[in-house]
Backbone:
């Protein structure tokens, strides 16, 4: 179920030098969160305004940077002992904003209902994971269509022009991912002793 998320340890290792440089320069983790949102906006603009094929390298580079910043902000906070509840909130809000901003790049290219459906579906896996974490389960990540896969699919659309099929895959795959996470959490939480009703 992890999909491309299984590559995260390898990817984090590749970023270790960058992370060390950021620590030395005392860069704020919140700055990296904001940079990820800016990269998402750049990718959306390139997707919306540049011709298919031409936009693909730029969209790919900006989304790779968006994923790198999403990896680095939390790691930097841990490395510098600057983990805070506000930082965790900002990180989650930044991730959700970046997801939706990237998909907004499809607005000039596809029917509004399809873009909106894909945007709603893309947020579902994270909401399920956050609800599970609130209930005491480990935070679930990964695919089959998680954040990394969605970025890869956007690059496919930028390269090929297959906008409607890609949005359909994002919508259906994200809903499937949310369903699989919910099923796993339901099983796991059923074995955890009740500690009170959080409702």
Residues:
């Amino acid at each position: 179920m992890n999909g491309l998320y299984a590559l995260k340890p390898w990817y984090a290792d590749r970023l270790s030098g960058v992370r060390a440089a950021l620590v030395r320069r005392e860069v704020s983790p919140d700055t990296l969160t904001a940079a990820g949102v800016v990269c998402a906006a750049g990718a959306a603009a390139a997707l919306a305004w540049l011709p298919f094929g031409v936009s693909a390298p730029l969209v790919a580079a900006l989304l790779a940077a968006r994923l790198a910043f999403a990896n680095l902000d939390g790691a930097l906070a841990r490395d510098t002992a600057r983990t805070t509840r506000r930082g965790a909130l900002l990180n989650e809000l930044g991730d959700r904003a970046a997801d939706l901003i990237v998909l907004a790049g499809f607005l000039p290219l596809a029917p509004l209902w399809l873009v909106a459906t894909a945007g709603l579906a893309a947020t579902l896996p994270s909401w399920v994971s956050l609800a599970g974490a609130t209930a005491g389960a480990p935070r679930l990540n990964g695919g089959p269509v998680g954040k990394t896969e969605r970025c890869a699919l956007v690059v496919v659309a930028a390269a090929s022009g297959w906008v409607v099929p890609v949005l359909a895959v994002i919508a259906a795959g994200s809903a499937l991912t949310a369903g699989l996470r919910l099923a796993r959490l339901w099983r796991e939480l059923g074995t955890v002793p009740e500690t009170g009703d959080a409702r």
In short: The chain has eight helices and no strands. The CA atoms of residues 44 and 105 lie 4 Å apart.
